Amino acid sequence: MTALLNPRFWIGLGLVIALTLAGAFIYRAGKAVKGAEFDAYKLAQQEARILADRARSLRNQARQAAVDKEARDGQVRIAAVEADLAGARADGERMRLAYRDAAQRARDLARVAAAGKGEPDSDPIGVFEGLLSRADRRAETVSGYADKLRVAGTVCERSWDALKIK
Q: Helix or strand or coil: residue 120?
């Protein structure tokens, strides 16, 4: 019981209690500071992610707008090729009609019976007219196809270049 009356005991006990409370306070304060730092870190990461998503969205919109523009330009070019092809077809049809008319006039002038046969001779002018007509039609088909492929290739290349926007 004499130990309880000793003032050193009470001073030591008070000091232990004070140090324990101070340690607990410091621990809790440190934990709160660490928690606040972590919350700030999480917030910064979230803001960075939002900014990155927005930048990616803007890049994608710019790329899509460039590709859409090239597609529209390509449609205009294809329509121009189609118009040129229709004009070429009309010109070709007029030329084929002129072939036929010339061949018919030549046939009418050359229709005489071959000697000793009593029937008209073969028609080399008609063969030539048929050959020119078929060759002209095939040339229209091939050139129209080649023009469309050229325009489509150009549009594809420009669309690819538009996708490489940084």
A: strand
Q: What is the mean pLDDT of the chain?
A: 83
The answer to whether the beta carbons of residues 155 and 71 sit under 8 Å apart is yes
State how far the Cα of 160 lies from the Cα of 154, in Å rounded to an integer. 10
C-beta neighbour count of 88 within 10 angstroms: 16
Write down the domain spans for the chain. 2-163
- Residue 144, both tokens: 């129209």
Cβ 130 vs Cβ 102: under 8 Å: no
Residue 137 has pLDDT above 60, yes or no: yes
Name the E strands within 52-102. none
94 vs 129, more confident? 94
d(CA 31, CA 49): 27
| Stretch 91-103: mean pLDDT | 84
Distance CA 132, CA 123 (A): 15
The pTM assigned to this predicted structure is 0.54
